[in-house]
Fold this protein.
Amino acid sequence: MTALLTDLQSRNSRRACPRSQGFTLLEILVVIVIVGVIISVATVSIGVLGRDREMQEQAERVWAVLQQAKEECELQGFDVGLRIGASGYDFLRFDARRHQWLPIGDDDLMAPRSMPDGLRLRLWLEGREVVLVERPDDRVENTAEQNASEPRGDSDSPASDTAKKDDKVKELPPQIMVLSSGDLSSFDLRFERDGNDAHWHVFSRPDGTVVAEQLNETI
Protein backbone atom coordinates (compact mmCIF):
# COMPACT_ATOMS: atom_id res chain seq x y z
CA MET A 1 0.00 0.00 0.00
CA THR A 2 2.80 2.33 0.92
CA ALA A 3 4.55 1.60 -2.38
CA LEU A 4 1.34 2.39 -4.28
CA LEU A 5 0.94 5.78 -2.57
CA THR A 6 4.55 6.65 -3.28
CA ASP A 7 4.13 5.82 -6.96
CA LEU A 8 0.98 7.96 -7.23
CA GLN A 9 2.69 10.93 -5.56
CA SER A 10 5.63 10.62 -7.95
CA ARG A 11 3.34 10.64 -10.99
CA ASN A 12 1.38 13.64 -9.71
CA SER A 13 4.63 15.56 -9.17
CA ARG A 14 5.74 14.89 -12.76
CA ARG A 15 2.37 16.07 -14.08
CA ALA A 16 2.42 19.30 -11.97
CA CYS A 17 5.99 20.13 -12.96
CA PRO A 18 6.43 19.34 -16.66
CA ARG A 19 10.01 18.97 -17.87
CA SER A 20 11.45 22.29 -19.08
CA GLN A 21 13.05 22.31 -22.52
CA GLY A 22 16.34 24.18 -23.29
CA PHE A 23 17.29 26.23 -26.37
CA THR A 24 18.47 24.37 -29.41
CA LEU A 25 21.83 25.18 -31.01
CA LEU A 26 20.08 26.79 -33.98
CA GLU A 27 18.08 29.13 -31.74
CA ILE A 28 21.23 30.21 -29.89
CA LEU A 29 23.00 30.94 -33.18
CA VAL A 30 20.06 33.04 -34.41
CA VAL A 31 20.08 35.08 -31.21
CA ILE A 32 23.83 35.67 -31.50
CA VAL A 33 23.46 36.87 -35.11
CA ILE A 34 20.63 39.27 -34.18
CA VAL A 35 22.62 40.73 -31.27
CA GLY A 36 25.65 41.18 -33.51
CA VAL A 37 23.62 43.05 -36.13
CA ILE A 38 22.10 45.35 -33.51
CA ILE A 39 25.53 46.17 -32.05
CA SER A 40 26.96 46.89 -35.52
CA VAL A 41 24.11 49.24 -36.44
CA ALA A 42 24.39 51.04 -33.11
CA THR A 43 28.15 51.49 -33.54
CA VAL A 44 27.78 52.94 -37.05
CA SER A 45 24.98 55.25 -35.89
CA ILE A 46 27.05 56.56 -32.99
CA GLY A 47 29.97 57.28 -35.35
CA VAL A 48 27.82 59.19 -37.83
CA LEU A 49 26.10 61.19 -35.13
CA GLY A 50 29.45 62.03 -33.58
CA ARG A 51 30.78 63.48 -36.86
CA ASP A 52 27.57 65.43 -37.39
CA ARG A 53 27.82 66.82 -33.88
CA GLU A 54 31.35 68.03 -34.57
CA MET A 55 30.21 69.70 -37.79
CA GLN A 56 27.25 71.27 -36.01
CA GLU A 57 29.46 72.65 -33.24
CA GLN A 58 31.79 74.32 -35.74
CA ALA A 59 28.88 75.90 -37.61
CA GLU A 60 27.24 77.13 -34.42
CA ARG A 61 30.54 78.62 -33.23
CA VAL A 62 30.85 80.75 -36.37
CA TRP A 63 27.20 81.76 -36.05
CA ALA A 64 27.64 82.78 -32.39
CA VAL A 65 30.81 84.80 -33.06
CA LEU A 66 29.20 86.61 -35.99
CA GLN A 67 26.20 87.44 -33.82
CA GLN A 68 28.49 88.85 -31.14
CA ALA A 69 30.60 90.75 -33.68
CA LYS A 70 27.47 92.29 -35.21
CA GLU A 71 26.35 93.62 -31.83
CA GLU A 72 29.78 94.98 -30.92
CA CYS A 73 30.24 96.67 -34.29
CA GLU A 74 26.95 98.52 -33.97
CA LEU A 75 27.59 99.54 -30.35
CA GLN A 76 31.26 100.55 -30.67
CA GLY A 77 31.27 101.83 -34.25
CA PHE A 78 33.94 99.67 -35.92
CA ASP A 79 33.98 97.15 -38.78
CA VAL A 80 34.93 93.47 -38.52
CA GLY A 81 35.71 91.03 -41.31
CA LEU A 82 35.76 87.24 -41.47
CA ARG A 83 38.54 85.82 -43.66
CA ILE A 84 37.96 82.20 -44.64
CA GLY A 85 40.21 79.44 -45.94
CA ALA A 86 39.36 75.87 -46.88
CA SER A 87 40.51 74.55 -43.48
CA GLY A 88 40.16 77.54 -41.17
CA TYR A 89 39.26 81.17 -40.66
CA ASP A 90 40.27 84.29 -38.79
CA PHE A 91 38.75 87.66 -37.96
CA LEU A 92 40.08 91.06 -39.00
CA ARG A 93 39.31 94.57 -37.80
CA PHE A 94 39.33 97.56 -40.10
CA ASP A 95 41.84 100.26 -39.13
CA ALA A 96 40.34 103.49 -40.45
CA ARG A 97 43.53 105.45 -39.78
CA ARG A 98 45.67 103.13 -41.88
CA HIS A 99 42.78 102.12 -44.13
CA GLN A 100 43.64 98.43 -43.77
CA TRP A 101 42.18 95.21 -42.46
CA LEU A 102 44.37 93.98 -39.58
CA PRO A 103 44.26 90.72 -37.59
CA ILE A 104 42.57 90.76 -34.20
CA GLY A 105 45.15 89.55 -31.72
CA ASP A 106 43.66 90.43 -28.34
CA ASP A 107 40.28 88.74 -28.44
CA ASP A 108 39.90 85.03 -27.60
CA LEU A 109 36.40 84.93 -29.07
CA MET A 110 37.65 86.10 -32.47
CA ALA A 111 40.90 84.16 -32.41
CA PRO A 112 41.89 82.20 -35.57
CA ARG A 113 40.36 78.74 -35.81
CA SER A 114 41.31 75.60 -37.74
CA MET A 115 38.82 72.97 -38.82
CA PRO A 116 39.11 69.48 -37.25
CA ASP A 117 40.53 66.75 -39.47
CA GLY A 118 38.07 65.73 -42.17
CA LEU A 119 36.08 68.96 -42.18
CA ARG A 120 36.39 71.60 -44.88
CA LEU A 121 34.80 74.96 -45.67
CA ARG A 122 33.20 76.25 -48.85
CA LEU A 123 31.98 79.79 -49.37
CA TRP A 124 29.38 81.41 -51.61
CA LEU A 125 29.13 85.18 -52.00
CA GLU A 126 26.18 86.69 -53.83
CA GLY A 127 25.29 83.22 -55.10
CA ARG A 128 28.75 82.45 -56.54
CA GLU A 129 31.30 80.07 -55.03
CA VAL A 130 34.62 81.58 -53.98
CA VAL A 131 37.92 79.75 -54.40
CA LEU A 132 39.53 79.42 -50.96
CA VAL A 133 43.19 79.04 -50.03
CA GLU A 134 44.06 76.24 -47.61
CA ARG A 135 44.37 78.62 -44.65
CA PRO A 136 43.57 82.33 -44.84
CA ASP A 137 46.81 83.35 -43.12
CA ASP A 138 49.16 80.81 -44.74
CA ARG A 139 50.09 83.06 -47.65
CA VAL A 140 50.83 85.93 -45.29
CA GLU A 141 53.01 83.82 -42.98
CA ASN A 142 54.88 82.11 -45.81
CA THR A 143 55.64 85.40 -47.53
CA ALA A 144 56.83 86.91 -44.28
CA GLU A 145 59.21 83.95 -43.76
CA GLN A 146 60.59 84.33 -47.28
CA ASN A 147 61.19 88.01 -46.73
CA ALA A 148 62.96 87.29 -43.45
CA SER A 149 65.32 84.81 -45.16
CA GLU A 150 66.28 87.23 -47.94
CA PRO A 151 69.44 89.35 -47.46
CA ARG A 152 68.71 92.87 -46.35
CA GLY A 153 69.90 95.90 -48.19
CA ASP A 154 70.81 99.26 -46.76
CA SER A 155 67.24 100.44 -47.16
CA ASP A 156 65.83 97.70 -44.86
CA SER A 157 64.59 98.87 -41.48
CA PRO A 158 62.02 97.86 -38.86
CA ALA A 159 59.64 100.40 -40.34
CA SER A 160 59.96 98.91 -43.82
CA ASP A 161 59.44 95.38 -42.43
CA THR A 162 56.21 96.53 -40.80
CA ALA A 163 55.08 98.08 -44.06
CA LYS A 164 55.79 94.82 -45.92
CA LYS A 165 53.73 92.79 -43.47
CA ASP A 166 50.90 95.27 -43.69
CA ASP A 167 50.97 95.00 -47.48
CA LYS A 168 50.78 91.20 -47.31
CA VAL A 169 47.81 91.37 -44.94
CA LYS A 170 46.13 93.82 -47.27
CA GLU A 171 46.44 91.31 -50.12
CA LEU A 172 44.01 88.98 -48.35
CA PRO A 173 40.99 91.02 -47.26
CA PRO A 174 38.05 89.35 -45.53
CA GLN A 175 35.32 87.90 -47.69
CA ILE A 176 32.55 88.54 -45.14
CA MET A 177 32.23 91.99 -43.60
CA VAL A 178 30.21 93.08 -40.57
CA LEU A 179 29.85 96.85 -40.65
CA SER A 180 29.15 99.32 -37.87
CA SER A 181 26.04 100.39 -39.76
CA GLY A 182 24.54 96.95 -39.18
CA ASP A 183 25.04 95.86 -42.79
CA LEU A 184 26.33 92.35 -43.42
CA SER A 185 27.73 90.69 -46.53
CA SER A 186 25.44 88.26 -48.33
CA PHE A 187 27.14 84.89 -47.83
CA ASP A 188 26.63 81.16 -47.46
CA LEU A 189 29.42 79.38 -45.54
CA ARG A 190 29.17 75.58 -45.74
CA PHE A 191 30.78 72.93 -43.57
CA GLU A 192 31.36 69.58 -45.26
CA ARG A 193 32.92 66.19 -44.59
CA ASP A 194 33.99 63.66 -47.20
CA GLY A 195 31.57 60.77 -47.44
CA ASN A 196 28.82 62.55 -45.52
CA ASP A 197 25.86 64.11 -47.32
CA ALA A 198 24.56 65.96 -44.25
CA HIS A 199 26.12 69.43 -44.42
CA TRP A 200 25.77 72.41 -42.12
CA HIS A 201 25.87 75.99 -43.26
CA VAL A 202 25.83 79.51 -41.85
CA PHE A 203 24.27 82.15 -44.06
CA SER A 204 22.87 85.67 -44.01
CA ARG A 205 19.33 86.68 -44.85
CA PRO A 206 18.28 89.88 -46.67
CA ASP A 207 17.22 91.43 -43.35
CA GLY A 208 20.77 91.04 -41.98
CA THR A 209 20.12 88.13 -39.65
CA VAL A 210 22.56 85.20 -39.52
CA VAL A 211 21.28 81.62 -39.48
CA ALA A 212 22.95 78.25 -38.84
CA GLU A 213 21.14 75.12 -39.97
CA GLN A 214 21.60 71.67 -41.45
CA LEU A 215 21.51 71.25 -45.22
CA ASN A 216 20.55 67.67 -46.06
CA GLU A 217 21.52 67.48 -49.66
CA THR A 218 24.66 66.88 -51.66
CA ILE A 219 26.20 70.09 -52.99
